[in-house]
């Protein structure tokens, strides 16, 4: 099976040695001089110029339109799907080509373990961290253009956990179906949403929305899926993250 797992990055960084991984420099059309030699997301049909609003989705779009593979996935330069039973350092635990092949023999989609929020729903967490209007628009577009997804959307928004970071590996047919659905919705949100007063962080809005839309699509289409652990390659300061969460929740 020809599997390609994109590694979205915007900087030079250590990459896995396994050839199944394809480092993709996102926003290459904007900052080509910063690319250390990785595949750019601006070859062929692309949306590289929108990277500041779509985040790693510009790599997914590039793969959808240009990459020939039996299965396609995405991870991040500092965040990977792993096998905790493997010994060694963090990079030694990253899933290999044979790991992915074995999993895709029995499953259609590989996902990271869900992130749990415990004390609030996905909707509550989103609007405490970001502007609410993008989700309102997203729901209205689903209601008008994809009504068969509305019940799943409501279920995901009320849930307290989600598959985050836009990380996955999908067999090609599912990847194509998901990409067509996702980008159609996001482009319609983009047409209606005024982000001219959003700061740099909030301007990444379409990447943020997509993190929740993945579970909506999974809920409706029900591909045979498996969750695996994921790992940050750098130390996380959970105290600072926790304080940021509380500030967003109670002071926003």
- Summed over residues and divided by their number, the pLDDT gives a mean of 94
Low-confidence stretches: 238-243
Question: Helical amount among residues, as a percent range?
Answer: 40-55%
Number of helices: 9
Calculate the terminal CA-CA distance, rounded to whole Å.
48 Å
> What's the gyration radius in Å?
18 Å
Elements, N to C (H/E): EEEHHEEHEEHHHEEHHEEH
Quantity of strands, as a count: 11
The order of strands across the largest sheet is 3-2-1-4-9-6-10
Largest sheet: 7 strands, mixed
SS strand fraction: 15-25%
- The oligomeric state of the chains shown is single chain
Polypeptide structure, described:
Helix 5 (133-145) crosses helix 7 (172-192), helix 6 (150-158) packs across helix 8 and helix 7 crosses helix 8 (205-221). 42% of the residues lie in helices and 17% in strands. The protein is globular and about 45 Å long. The strands form three sheets. Strands 3-2-1-4-9-6-10 form a seven-stranded mixed β-sheet, with helices on both faces. Strands 5-11 form a two-stranded antiparallel ribbon. With 252 residues, it is α/β, with parallel strands linked by helices. The model is unreliable at 238-243 (pLDDT under 50). It has helices at residues 51-54, 57-66, 97-106, 122-129, 133-145, 150-158, 172-192, 205-221, 238-251, and strands at 3-9, 21-25, 39-40, 71-76, 79-81, 109-112, 115-116, 161-162, 168-171, 225-228, 230-232. It contains nine helices and eleven strands. The relative contact order is 0.17. It has one domain (3-251). It starts with a strand and ends with a helix. The longest helix is centred in the C-terminal third of the chain and has 21 residues, at 172-192.
């Amino acid at each position: 099976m020809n599997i390609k797992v994109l590694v979205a990055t915007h900087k030079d960084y250590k990459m896995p040695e396994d050839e199944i991984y394809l480092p993709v420099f996102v926003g290459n059309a904007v900052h080509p001089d910063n690319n250390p030699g990785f595949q750019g997301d601006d070859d062929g049909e692309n949306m590289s110029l929108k990277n500041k609003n779509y985040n790693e989705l510009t790599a997914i779009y590039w793969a959808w339109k240009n990459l020939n593979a039996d299965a396609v996935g995405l991870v991040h330069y500092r965040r990977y799907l792993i096998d905790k039973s493997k010994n060694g350092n963090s990079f030694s635990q990253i899933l290999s080509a044979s790991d992915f092949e074995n999993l895709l023999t029995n499953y259609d989609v590989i996902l990271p373990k869900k992130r749990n929020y415990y004390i609030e729903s996905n909707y509550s967490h989103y609007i405490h961290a970001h502007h609410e209007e993008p989700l309102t628009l997203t729901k209205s577009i689903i209601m008008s253009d994809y009504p068969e997804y509305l019940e799943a959307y409501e279920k995901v928004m009320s849930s307290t956990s989600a598959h985050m970071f836009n990380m996955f590996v999908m067999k090609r047919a599912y990847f194509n179906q998901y990409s067509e659905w996702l980008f159609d919705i996001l482009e319609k949100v983009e047409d209606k949403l005024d982000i001219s007063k959003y700061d740099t962080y909030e301007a990444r809005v379409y990447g943020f929305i997509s993190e929740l839309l993945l579970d909506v699509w999974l809920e409706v289409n029900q591909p045979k899926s498996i969750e695996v652990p994921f790992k940050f390659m750098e130390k996380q300061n959970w105290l600072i993250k926790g304080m940021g969460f509380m500030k967003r929740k109670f002071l926003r």
